[in-house]
Design brief:
With 235 residues, the protein is of the alpha+beta class. The chain has a single domain (18-219), classed as Alpha-Beta Complex (Lambda Exonuclease, Chain A), CATH 3.90.320. The protein has helices at 18-26, 28-36, 46-64, 76-87, 145-158, 184-208; strands spanning 92-101, 117-127, 130-137, 164-171, 176-183. The model has no long low-confidence stretch (mean pLDDT 94).
C-alpha cells in the first residue's frame, strides 16, 4: 500500500513528536531546515550531552539498580527510591517507554518506517485507571503545557483503560516538581483537537513547501539557519 504521508526533500515520510511540533511552533523556517530539507544537522551541546547522561543514568538506576554516578547530587537518589517504593505497592513501573504509532493508530517499533508519531516517557507508574507520567528535566524551569498534553495523549492511546493522568516534570536542578492533572472525559478531546490543528498546518507546509520564518530572540545567533532574513550574529 502506498504511504499517503507527504515526503520531505530526501523522500522521508512526515512524522511527528513533541520536539518536531515545538520546532515548527518556534519557527517553521528553522523546522524546515532541520526536518524537511535536512540541511542543518543536529549538534550536541554541553547541555544536551549532560541531559543525555542524566537520563541514561536514571534509566540504569531504575531498570538495573545501577548506582547513580558519584558526581550526581545525592538528593536525586530519593526520586528513584520513591518510584521503587511505589512499584512495590501495587503500581506498575515502566522506565524509558518508547511509544510509536502508525497512521492507523497501531503500535509499531520506534525505528519503523511506518512510525508516524513518537514519544518517550521517562518514568510511568500505572495503577487501576490512573497513569502517573514523569519527565526528568535538567535545565531551567520552563514548563510546557504542550509536552504535558502530548504525554497524556500517547499514554491514553497506548492504555485505553486509563481515565486519569497525572503529568509531571521533575526539575532536578531545583529539586521541584510541576505539572497538571488531566482526565480522559474532560481533556482528551481538547488535546486531540489541538493536535489535529497543529498537524494540519505542518503537513500543509510539507505539501506546499512553504515554511514562513518567525522572528524571535533565538534569531540572534542561536539559530543555525544563517540564510534566514531574520538571522543576526550573537552579541
Amino acid at each position: 500500500m502506498t504511504d499517503p504521508r507527504p515526503k520531505n526533500a530526501n523522500g522521508k515520510p512526515f512524522s511527528w513528536s513533541y520536539s518536531a511540533i515545538n520546532d515548527f511552533d518556534t519557527c517553521p523556517y528553522q523546522y524546515a531546515a532541520k526536518r524537511f530539507y535536512e540541511s542543518v544537522k543536529f549538534e550536541h551541546t554541553e547541555a544536551t550531552l549532560w541531559g543525555d547522561r542524566v537520563h541514561k543514568a536514571k534509566e540504569n538506576r531504575l531498570k538495573h539498580g545501577t548506582p547513580l554516578p558519584a558526581d550526581f547530587p545525592k538528593e536525586w537518589e530519593r526520586y528513584c527510591e520513591v518510584f521503587e517504593k511505589r512499584a512495590t505497592q501495587g503500581m506498575k513501573l515502566v522506565v524509558e517507554d518508547e511509544i510509536a504509532f502508525d497512521m492507523d493508530g497501531n503500535l509499531t517499533s520506534w525505528f519503523s518506517k511506518q512510525a508516524w508519531a513518537r514519544n518517550k516517557v521517562d518514568v510511568l507508574l500505572l495503577r487501576d485507571d490512573t497513569a502517573y507520567i514523569y519527565d526528568w528535566k535538567t535545565g531551567k524551569v520552563r514548563e510546557s503545557l504542550l509536552q504535558l498534553q502530548l504525554s497524556v495523549w500517547f499514554i491514553g492511546q497506548k492504555y485505553p483503560h486509563i481515565q486519569n493522568f497525572v503529568s509531571k516534570f521533575i526539575w532536578l536542578n531545583s529539586l521541584t516538581v510541576t505539572g497538571q492533572d488531566f482526565t480522559r472525559a474532560e481533556h482528551m478531546q481538547g488535546i486531540e483537537d489541538m493536535l489535529h490543528e497543529k498537524l494540519k498546518r505542518m503537513t500543509t507546509a510539507w505539501r506546499t513547501k512553504v515554511f514562513q520564518p518567525k522572528e524571535s530572540g533565538l534569531c540572534r545567533g542561536w539559530c543555525p539557519v544563517e540564510e534566514c532574513r531574520f538571522w543576526k550574529e550573537k552579541r
